[in-house]
Amino acid sequence: MRRLFDTVKYALIDRKLQREVKERYYSSREFAALDRALLTAYIFKNPYIISKKYLQNRQEKELHTYGETPLTTYETIAKEVDIQPTDTFLELGSGRGRGALFLHHFYKCKVIGIERVPQFIKLARHLAHKYQLKEASFICGDMFQTKLPQEATTIYLYGSNLADSEITQLVTRLKEIPLGTKIVTISYPLTDYDSRVFKLEKTFPVSFPWGETEAYLQTRNVYE
């Protein structure tokens, strides 16, 4: 009963968020067409169920790790980070690719998404090809193992469901990125795990379907 209540609750929240997306962003006909194509593809393919089935097939213990960042929150992040057309935005765990495609369209930056669920990657690549988005690419792989593109100037991690051991593993991987690279994390700063390698630049409020929280902007520090 509780799960049914949560399903209905989040369905109503998603509907509200989509109304806001239409009001704020669909004045761009190109983006409206792109976003509608993505959403239409998932009408009978709930992304949460797709992710759950993928994790079940891999015999993972935690099956409910999927979550999406609202497009309004991507806009907040882009403004706080000052995303420019010369930037490359790397998203660790890009899901359906909706946020990456949004940033590519409105901020003209290069985007790269890393996502382990093949079905998400297949459709994101299809849309990027269909709409001739040459600077939008998607890598099918595990962010804990896939080599991180060194050209990224900003990295985004929405990893609120990650265990401490997983965050520690990612922190070790992020030590490989170039100095000065910006990293945005949700709910916790990387300085909690290594204050020498990462420098906290600022925090700012962001919204998710489950509530308000803080985003942390940090840079790969010159000192180790």
Q: Would you summarize the structure shown here?
A:
This protein is of the alpha/beta class and 224 residues long. The protein contains seven helices and seven strands; from the N terminus they run H-H-H-H-E-H-E-H-E-E-H-E-E-E. The chain has one domain (29-220): Rossmann fold (3-Layer(aba) Sandwich), CATH 3.40.50.
Topology record:
Layout: H1 2-25, H2 29-41, H3 47-57, H4 71-81, E1 88-92, H5 98-107, E2 110-115, H6 118-130, E3 136-140, E4 154-157, H7 164-174, E5 182-186, E6 198-208, E7 211-220
Parallel strand pairs: 1-2, 1-4, 2-3, 4-5
Antiparallel strand pairs: 5-7, 6-7
Helix pairs in contact: 2-5, 4-5
Describe it.
By secondary structure, the chain is α/β, with parallel strands linked by helices. The chain has a single domain, classed as Rossmann fold. Helix content is 42%, strand content 21%. It is built from 7 helices and 7 strands. The chain has helices spanning 2-25, 29-41, 47-57, 71-81, 98-107, 118-130, 164-174, and strands at 88-92, 110-115, 136-140, 154-157, 182-186, 198-208, 211-220. The protein has a 7-stranded mixed sheet with strand order 3-2-1-4-5-7-6, covered by helices on one side. Strand 2 (110-115), helix 6 and strand 3 (136-140) form a beta-alpha-beta unit. The longest helix has 24 residues, at 2-25. The protein is globular and about 45 Å long. It starts with a helix and ends with a strand. This is DOT1 domain-containing protein. InterPro entries: DOT1_dom, SAM-dependent_MTases_sf.
